[in-house]
Description:
This protein is an alpha/beta fold.
Amino acid sequence: MERFPLSFYYRIADQLVDQAKVYRDEQRIHDLYTTLSRYCRLAEVLPQHKSFMAYSLNEKFHHKKIYQDFIQELQMLNQVVGNDSLPQKNNSLSSITERKVAHCCTVGTKSMRVYEEKTGLASVFTFDTTTAKDWNFNLHKVKSSPSPSLSCIYSMPFTGRVSHLTADDSKHGDSNSSLNGSSESRVLQDVHISARLMEGFLELARDNTDKDLETCGILGAFLKKGTFYVTTLIVPNQESTSSSCQALNEEEIYAVQNEHSLFPIGWIHTHPSQTCFMSSIDLHTHYSYQVMLPEAFAIVMAPTDTSRSYGIFRLTEPGGLSVLKDCQERGFHSHPEPPDGSPLYEHCSNVYINQNLRFEIFDLR
Ligand SMILES: [Zn+2]
Ligand SMILES: [Zn+2]
């Protein structure tokens, strides 16, 4: 239940605030509604975390205010779009967001659960919402600016320069049939990656690869019009062996992500002498990414694998996610099959190579 430190859940909250801002600016009402609902559901269970009482007051007040605002915004969205159906996109939000609400109202978890049921959200959070403590709505905020704005410098045309990556693209020989099949139960947004990302990373990893040591990097993306564009590779300080790699000084990584308003869309690592697959440790590492952002993916680069030089993977949902959620083991170990018969992980079907995407590398080593 206390799977991650509370700071991790606050990072998810921050990321949802950023995502909501993009959707609000782009007037994507359905996506905004879904994101606000996810945020509120998370905010309601944060007080159950064992570290909540001792956690930074500033951070708690900051998010308490955002929670209140989001509850109001959800109510207004609900009024405007009616009870049964939500428009998919492009409905004017200006009349909604510009309305000022005079009174700060308290909405309990009960009504939020109605929103959740309506939007059909499948939460991956492990808290039990039925015992969530109410927030104290009498406390006043100390900060009001919810998030840095997403600065967008993307301006390139896509026409004819985007290619769909399929599971077959990286295969040179026999296929690995254990990963076939898709379990995507939620609609994932598309992800575009730069054509230079993977070869650039291999180049950076070469020294380690020659010494049979893994290398890892973190991928940052910006979000525009319902698509994540992966523009940034952060190579952190790290410790590695021939079969594992651990990023150090995570705060440095967050600093780069925050400074450039990037979403933590995934990670990339090498298997210098192993085949292209996700080890049990890789699956646990990836679990935290996918909990943070459903679109998160893991790229495995295996230059010595003659049948598959790279793979772009994610945990199946709900199958793989539920197995990893319940697994307390560390180190290399085996996992049971998901109860629904799906594989633990699968190839991403929503990732595209975009020849026009700019690409930056932050090498912090
Ligand atoms: Zn690995
Ligand atoms: Zn495990």
